[in-house]
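Bumping my old thread because nobody answered last time. Still need a sequence for this structure:
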């Protein structure tokens, strides 16, 4: 997916552009009090499904989000990385409408889905009923079956959640999220509890679902490799502020063994205060669809 002008300054031309984040230009709703959340179609002026201005959040007097400005275009995939406590999940919860204590101005679409690190399946409902939970109408069951087919679990429609592996349960969570045809898909470390091989398979599946349905995606992750493999842009959060943006322009398929990939990885790890003194290990598979 081609990089777009988002009001963020990129300073180093390369396979990925690294730069400091500048505040987007244009009118900003500066207001006190709880976040002003608006729903609607994609902004024609900004071409964005998400427009955040001056988003703030504090806990016990400690600022966790500091006047964040953020734009997300239709169909764009953005990854948020940062140390624990940097504000990644807090910002994602604000986008999801799950935090009533957020201040600022926020434009988000009504059709949003969230996938958490835990699948959060209802144990007394079968897989297909978990997928269509909250959905009514004559076509709900058929839509749930289609969603399960897209994640390769159509044969498990009648299974109980307790019989699923961790990866299968997370596939059900993805199917449930995608059944709602979201304009905005929010992912809070959805693969963090999975083993390495399952994570790779989930990366391939997620990218396939994204390319097929074209939601805008915000992924919170601690895994720098995961961010580079999947995203159009990577934003680094430090102490509640966007400290750096990386525009990923690697060709398809993206490979961890690519020198440009390793350079991006080293730069991001350095920004996070982690020394990368060895090349990335060989992987049994990588994401086949590299540049969106």
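Sorry it took so long. Here it is:
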């Amino acid at each position: 997916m081609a990089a777009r002008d988002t009001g963020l300054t990129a300073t180093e031309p390369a396979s990925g552009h690294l730069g400091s984040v500048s505040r987007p230009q244009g009118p900003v709703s500066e207001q006190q009090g709880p976040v002003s959340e608006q729903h609607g179609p994609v902004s024609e002026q900004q071409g964005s499904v998400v427009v955040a201005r001056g988003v703030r959040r504090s806990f016990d007097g400690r600022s966790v989000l500091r006047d964040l400005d953020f734009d997300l275009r239709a169909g764009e995939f953005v990854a948020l990385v940062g140390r624990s406590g940097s504000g990644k999940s807090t910002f994602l919860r604000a986008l999801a409408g799950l935090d009533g204590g957020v201040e600022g101005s926020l434009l988000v679409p009504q059709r949003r889905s969230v996938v958490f690190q835990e699948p959060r399946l209802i144990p007394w409902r079968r897989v297909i009923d978990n997928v269509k939970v909250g959905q009514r109408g004559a076509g709900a069951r058929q839509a749930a079956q289609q969603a399960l087919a897209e994640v390769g679990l159509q044969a498990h429609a009648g299974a109980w959640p307790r019989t699923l592996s961790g990866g299968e349960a997370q596939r059900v969570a993805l199917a449930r999220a995608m059944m709602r045809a979201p304009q905005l898909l929010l992912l809070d470390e959805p693969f963090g509890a999975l083993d390495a091989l399952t994570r790779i398979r989930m990366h391939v599946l997620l990218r396939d679902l994204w390319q097929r349905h074209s939601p805008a995606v915000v992924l919170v992750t601690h895994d720098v490799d995961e961010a580079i493999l999947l995203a159009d842009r990577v934003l680094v959060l430090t102490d509640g502020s966007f400290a750096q943006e990386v525009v990923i322009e690697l060709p398809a398929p993206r490979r961890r063994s690519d020198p440009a990939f390793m350079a991006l990885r080293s730069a991001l790890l350095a920004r996070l205060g982690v020394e990368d003194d060895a090349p990335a290990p060989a992987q049994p598979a990588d994401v086949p669809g590299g540049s969106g």
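Residues 1-15, 20-33, 40-45 have pLDDT under 50 and may be disordered. Let me know if any region looks off to you.
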